[in-house]
Amino acid sequence: MGETTPTNAMHRNVLVIGASRGLGAAIVETYVSRGAHVIGTERSDGPSRLRDVAARSGGLAEIEQVDITRPEEISALRSRLSGRTFDLLFVVAGISLAAQDEIGADIDTHAFERMMVTNVLGVMRAVEGLQDLVTPEGTIAVMSSGQGSISGNNSGGFEVYRATKSALNQMFRSFAVRHRDDRRALLLLAPGWVRTGLGGPNAALEIGDSIPPLIDTVDAQRGVPGLRFLDRHGQTIPW
User: Fold this and answer.
1) Nearest-angstrom CA–CA distance, 201 and 103
2) Rounded CA gap, 214 and 139, in Å?
3) Is 232:213 a contact under the CB 8 Å cutoff?
4) pLDDT tens profile 214-228
């Protein structure tokens, strides 16, 4: 994919689920800088990177609250957004708990359950609950990870996180099968290993290395129906 995006391909009305900090806030900020109108969501109403971005956006960024682990909050958000449409729904929300180097007795059961509920069930509930807000030729994107690739797992480590992303990929693929006649682009995206609160200080990439090309890739896929699993440069990742 090229480094620039044609103006007519850019998503102009964007809903980003899970945007309080890290990659989600950066996605909101980048789209705003390109002139898009963006709603970003967060779980609470405390200080956040998203609120800083919105304060500087000149009205281009709005904030909504939703906890995707609570179905009633997704339904409430859907009701609040009734009558509005978006050409991109981007579900970014996800967590990583514990070291997870190897599955076994050292993995806390509650941490495992929280990660699965948030990273898989919550994300897919958000997709299912909000997808009808997306225009017929728009895009539904979900933040996955290269670590979700089963055939690409040559190093192990982060086993619970890997498992959540693999499960997410499978569930989103099932969504795509059920919507096989849909004209919308369906994207699973791998941003690379990025230095955020989730990625940690040893990650290979800065946010600025990841998000601008990732958004170029998302915009370049607009109007191309069907499911794709892509890295930030638009290259296909093996399942």
Assistant:
1) 23
2) 14
3) yes
4) 999 999 999 999 999
pTM of the full structure: 0.92
Neighbours of 232 (CB within 10 A): 23
- 3-class state of residue 196 by DSSP: coil
What is the full DSSP assignment across 144-194? --GGG-STT-SS---HHHHHHHHHHHHHHHHHHHHTTT--SEEEEEE--SB
| Count of CA atoms in the C-beta half-sphere (13 A) of 24 | 29
CATH architecture under which domain 7-231 falls: 3-Layer(aba) Sandwich (3.40)
How many beta carbons lie within 10 A of that of residue 118, not counting itself? Answer: 20
Between CA 188 and CA 201 the distance in angstroms is: 25
**Residue 20 corresponds to which tokens in the numbers above?**
């309080």
Show me where the domains of the chain are located: 7-231
Residue 185's CB is within 10 A of a number of other CB atoms, namely: 22
Residue labelled with tokens 């705003």: 32
How many Å apart are CA 196 and CA 28, to the nearest integer?
15
Nearest to 98 by CA among 121, 115, 120, 116: 115
Q: Under 8 Å CB-to-CB from 162, ≥6 apart: which residues?
A: 145, 147, 148, 153
The pLDDT averaged over each successive group of 10 residues in the chain (239 residues) is 50 97 95 97 93 97 98 98 97 81 71 94 98 97 92 83 95 97 96 70 76 96 96 96
Sequence-distant contacts of 144-147: CB under 8 A, at least 24 apart: 144/168, 144/169, 144/172, 144/188, 144/189, 144/190, 144/229, 145/190, 145/191, 146/190, 146/192, 146/193, 146/231, 146/237
